[in-house]
Amino acid sequence: MARQGSDKERDQEVVSRRAVVGATVGGVGAATLVGVAAAAAWPESKGGGGGSAAPGTGSGAAAEDTGNYAVFDPNAKPADGWKAHDPVLPPAPAETVHNITMVAREDVGEVAPGVKQNLWNFDGVVPGPIYRGKMGDKFNVTLKNEGTLGHSVDFHSSRVAPNVRMATIQPGETIEYPWEGTNHGIYMYHCGTPPVLHHIGTGMYGCTIIDPPDLKPVDYEFVFIQSEFYLGPDGKEGDYDKMTQEKWDLVVFNGYASQYVFQPIKVDLNKRIRAWVIDVGPSENCSFHVIGTIFDTVYKEGEYLLRPETSNGGGSQALDLQPAQGGFVEFYFNEAGNYPFATHKFANPGKGALGIFQAGEVETKPGEDMGH
Ligand SMILES: [Cu+2]
Predict the structure, then answer these.
(1) For the segment 169-191, what is each residue's pLDDT rounded down to a tens digit?
(2) Model's pTM, two decimal places?
(3) How far is the centre of ligand 1, averaged over its atoms, from the C-alpha of 325 (Å)?
């Protein structure tokens, strides 16, 4: 499939270690969904072409400013062979001591179909790896800087002296960052090197999960990390001026615009689904909503807000998160169909904060509407 000319210099792409889509996910190639795949299909459908701005046409504000920024085309589709980041969350490993080496670096990667940016990252993936453990577990982290800029790491799940453990290290240096899982929840980690906004806005984040002690088994566990991208020139880092002005081009789950529209997440009917969600920003909020169902369980920032065993039948429609907040929701689907999920801040699903759960046997024909 033809891709943009910038591919000439794509020798160092960010490759997801979780790129192989798991058994519960995928199974519906982009080809089956041609016509419905574009994020523009919902909720900002304009019948094709609306909202897209080609460089040099003057139809987009960013293109007018410099004629130089990479541009998001909501109607573009990923190349053949593209795989979504696996959203499946594996269980916490059995060991209670986690010896972890993280590598900070910069690599060119794709954040939307045909849109390449130089992503500052941990371990060559955006978002960075997810570390999951139990209460009392020890995490012995070593950060190595194999990039060309100064970097650091700040685990929100830790109690440490920031000036010691979160210090910036230069290329070639390493730093030790031991911490203990004293409080359960889903936490952001990120590079804390000034300007922090630039390092987070260009991809340096991930999450840790410390399971609540009474966490119940469910049929599926997924993770959705919401973040923004502020497109710089093709193949270059994110635009810092756009970041300071909160002018994001993309809002995405797990590092790529609308990826679970292109590759819906397949689930069975009447199975309990737990979706962990964290908003790593750097600046936009998240109102996580799944169209066509109701959350009967909500856990946010270390506490249950709603659980079937203690509620009087109450339901929740959205998990509201400010940057650096997280939690999980649980739900199930009892009718076969396509169930979009998004942030209900409606300016953002059309910028990539949109995906689809495909529940049960669903016949999707090219061009078919997803229900909106
Ligand atoms: Cu950094």
Answers:
(1) 999 999 999 999 999 999 999 99
(2) 0.83
(3) 20
